[in-house]
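WARN retry 2 of 3 for item q-0093 after timeout on previous attempt; input resubmitted unchanged.
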Amino acid sequence: MPETMFINGTMVKASGSFTPAAASYTAGNIISVAQEFVFTDAKGRTVPPGSLIRLMSSVMKVAASALISGEGAYTAHAYSVTPPSARADNTAWARASGDLSAYRGSIALGTPVAAGGTCYVKTQFSDVQDFEVIGNSLFLELVNAGTFVAAAVARQVFLYGFLV
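OK item q-0093 returned
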């Protein structure tokens, strides 16, 4: 098998980071701006364009010893390209009609809880979370369910899955 060949079942991962402004966020507002999540295999090779990826789990880490009062569950909204509506940090998330062709669905990431000096949540997906990538990545917008005053610390998101 050539070194560059990918087969169904190849494990893949991607990650990105969202850092909010130190400001008040209303429930349903976007944290930071859309971030690109490039999928790679264990050898660091990017997946081929047009791959179908089945997400199995996600991990979210917040560099804080506890969640801020009012901060709740996070959802990531996935797109095949940078969201055409190009929403800014701390604006209400809504699926705009111009985004429909690029929108791939939502990913419920869960609510991070205190774990040592950071907050952490791992979510195992029990439903099918299949995403077709146009290139080798997805673009995610991160949304929080709560109203809170954010500290400017990163919310790191890691996605794990395999090629279908």
